[in-house]
């Protein structure tokens, strides 16, 4: 029988995304239809994960989606909703959305065309909010926004006022500034998720949609780390982390792992819900790998979350309210 639940994984052919697809199919054979999105469904990474899923007779589709193209994201959302309505996908019952894709190119960008902000903040918000109707209809859905410990150095208003910023479009920024931009993206998406969960509780008090921000820790992704335009520091840093990993992990289990470790932590979120998880959530949750943690005070500040919600609602055109 065809799976009744769908899980959408953006960056589905990336290191973590493809490991997650493997983990889901291995842990729950035949339970989920996996809808993997990527920019190039014909590249070697797409072929590798397709071959694996075919060998397992998994139900899956690979679809082209460039998250820097917000019109394309809107069309994708519309397509998914139409397919759910027409019964081709049975809905996101027990399934959900994992926002895995990320852009970590350290370039200056003007606000309205900043690829980093668009891919990491606006596209996940459009997907999460756009698919709300589908998620509300089911028995429960989980949204996992893949975060990063770098959120701690981020600013929640980092992208505000950037349209006036000096600096040439595409000009490179230094490593620390780049990390601050990246961390700010991760912080913004975390706060939008938390604000979303609070609004869901207020507007749909019976809903079973759960928003999670999960930090996968650092991953030894076999050289694929965040695309071809990564900063030169990463290969060196991750080379050192890779060698010292077994020692570092004695102190912190998220220090450096193969992507299969965070993939398993995410896949487990889609397993049999624990008693407490079956309930309505009033606030979003934050995990580092499989441990629930309290994130920093800024990310938990309701007033700041509301500001970020408003800014992202403005930039996506979704506005402030929850439209289904
Ligand atoms: N690696 C780490 O140590 C680490 C640490 C903390 C958090 N994370 C987070 O973990 C997640 C996965 O990282 P990873 O290491 O698995 O990276 P990765 O292998 O480089 O995967 C990144 C994915 O993002 C996709 N992507 C980039 N720009 C895109 C766009 N415009 N439209 C659609 N997709 C786009 C890439 O697609 P293409 O195949 O088209 O390039 C790729 O699938 C990210 O959210 C990252 O921030 C990673």
TrEMBL record:
<protein>
    <recommendedName>
        <fullName>3beta-hydroxysteroid 3-dehydrogenase</fullName>
        <ecNumber>1.1.1.270</ecNumber>
    </recommendedName>
</protein>
<dbReference type="Pfam" id="PF00106">
    <property type="entry name" value="adh_short"/>
</dbReference>
<dbReference type="InterPro" id="IPR051593">
    <property type="entry name" value="Ergosterol_Biosynth_ERG27"/>
</dbReference>
<dbReference type="GO" id="GO:0005789">
    <property type="term" value="C:endoplasmic reticulum membrane"/>
</dbReference>
<dbReference type="InterPro" id="IPR002347">
    <property type="entry name" value="SDR_fam"/>
</dbReference>
<comment type="pathway">
    <text>Steroid biosynthesis; zymosterol biosynthesis; zymosterol from lanosterol: step 5/6.</text>
</comment>
<dbReference type="InterPro" id="IPR036291">
    <property type="entry name" value="NAD(P)-bd_dom_sf"/>
</dbReference>
<dbReference type="GO" id="GO:0000253">
    <property type="term" value="F:3-beta-hydroxysteroid 3-dehydrogenase (NADP+) activity"/>
</dbReference>
<dbReference type="GO" id="GO:0005741">
    <property type="term" value="C:mitochondrial outer membrane"/>
</dbReference>
<dbReference type="GO" id="GO:0005811">
    <property type="term" value="C:lipid droplet"/>
</dbReference>
């Amino acid at each position: 029988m065809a799976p009744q639940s769908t899980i959408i994984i953006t960056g589905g052919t990336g290191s973590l995304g493809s490991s997650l697809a493997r983990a889901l199919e291995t842990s729950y054979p035949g339970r989920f239809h996996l809808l993997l999105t990527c920019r190039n469904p014909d590249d070697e990474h797409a072929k590798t994960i397709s071959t694996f899923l075919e060998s397992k007779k998994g139900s899956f589709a690979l679809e082209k989606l460039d998250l820097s193209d917000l019109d394309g994201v809107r069309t994708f959302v519309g397509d998914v909703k139409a397919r759910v309505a027409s019964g081709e996908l049975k809905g996101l019952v027990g399934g959900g959305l994992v926002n895995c894709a990320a852009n970590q190119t350290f370039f200056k960008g003007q606000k309205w065309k900043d690829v980093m902000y668009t891919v990491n903040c606006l596209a996940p918000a459009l997907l999460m909010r756009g698919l709300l109707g589908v998620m509300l209809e089911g028995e429960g859905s989980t949204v996992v926004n893949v975060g990063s410990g770098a959120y701690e150095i981020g600013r929640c208003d980092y992208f505000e006022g950037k349209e006036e910023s000096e600096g040439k479009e595409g000009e490179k920024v230094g490593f620390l500034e780049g990390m601050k931009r990246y961390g700010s993206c991760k912080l913004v998406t975390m706060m939008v998720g938390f604000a979303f969960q609070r609004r869901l509780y207020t507007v749909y008090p019976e809903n079973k949609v759960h928003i999670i921000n999960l930090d996968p820790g650092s991953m030894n992704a076999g050289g694929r780390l965040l695309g071809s335009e990564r900063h030169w520091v990463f290969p060196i840093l991750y080379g050192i982390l890779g060698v010292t990993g077994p020692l570092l992990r004695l102190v912190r289990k998220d220090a450096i792992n193969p992507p299969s470790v965070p993939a398993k932590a995410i896949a487990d979120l889609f397993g049999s819900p624990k008693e407490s998880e079956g309930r309505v959530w009033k606030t979003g949750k934050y995990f580092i790998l499989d441990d629930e943690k309290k994130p920093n005070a800024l990310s938990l500040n309701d007033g700041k979350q509301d500001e970020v919600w408003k800014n992202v609602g403005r930039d996506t055109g979704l506005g402030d309210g929850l439209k289904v």
